[in-house]
Design brief:
- The protein is of the alpha/beta class and about 300 residues long.
- Helices cover about 35% and strands about 20% of the residues.
- The protein has eleven helices and ten strands.
- Strands 1-2-4-3-5-6-9-10 form an eight-stranded mixed β-sheet, sandwiched between helices. Strands 7-8 form a two-stranded antiparallel sheet.
- Helix 3 (about 90-105) crosses helix 4 (about 120-130).
- The chain is globular.
- The termini are far apart.
Amino acid sequence: MQGTEHWTRKDDVRLFLWRKPPAARSAGTILFVHGSSMASQPTFDLQVPGRPHSSVMEWFAARGFDTWCMDNEGYGRSDKSRPLNCDIANGADDLAAGSDYILQATGAKNLLVYGISSGALKAALLAERHPQRVARLALDAFVWTGAGSPTLAERRKKLPEFQSKNRRPIDRAFVRSIFARDHPGTADQATVEAFADAILALDDSVPTGTYVDMCSKLPLVDPAKLTVPTIVMRGEYDGIAGFDDLVEFFKRLPNADKQFAVMAGISHASFQQKNYLTVYHLLHAFFSRPEPAYRG
């Protein structure tokens, strides 16, 4: 399935977007938002020989959705020139520029927005700031206060290092560690290696801002301000998304059109797991759910 590249600007910052449209009429327009350690195409348009439907963009496009992703500033093909650490608020600014571009380019009234890990925080901030742009919001591997997160507890030990520089190096060993730290065995090695190939083809370092924010500035999102329909998705073995923390967040979401889903056999990077099709179907059901006819 062929994709097309698009470009927009956030002031003087040039931002890259990638689109895979549906063959037929659109069932909705999806914006996928990447996490802290990789750009968007490796996450959402990954190709793995022998692994059907590795690209979540292609899977949704085949079902009638207009699919988009974008590289935040400091990642992938977007601008990396400014001397800053590209924190979560800055990433939400990117999404504001990107969502505006998509809405104008497609004529869509609003977007279905999916974010993973720090991308979920950015997506939630977009929905807080621009609720009229977000039809439905999916928060995967999300973190609210950080309570009950062993991964963040370990990461905080290196907080002074992350605060001392704007970028941190990544390599193949680091990508492999994403799948080994929580519950080894949730992803097959061929997918991990293909994921690493795609990530490292674009970046050998990534910004530190999201790590700094998630280690020292949580909470960044107020659930009471998320008025759009929302699904909270948590992998069974995810070491970042503390279960009780997410339940408390979920309870505070004001829109009754909401869902909390635990994904069996999955750790952190859900689209690269052995059970990835479970994630696709869960997300598809939420994104294609009809609006309530009666609210009471």
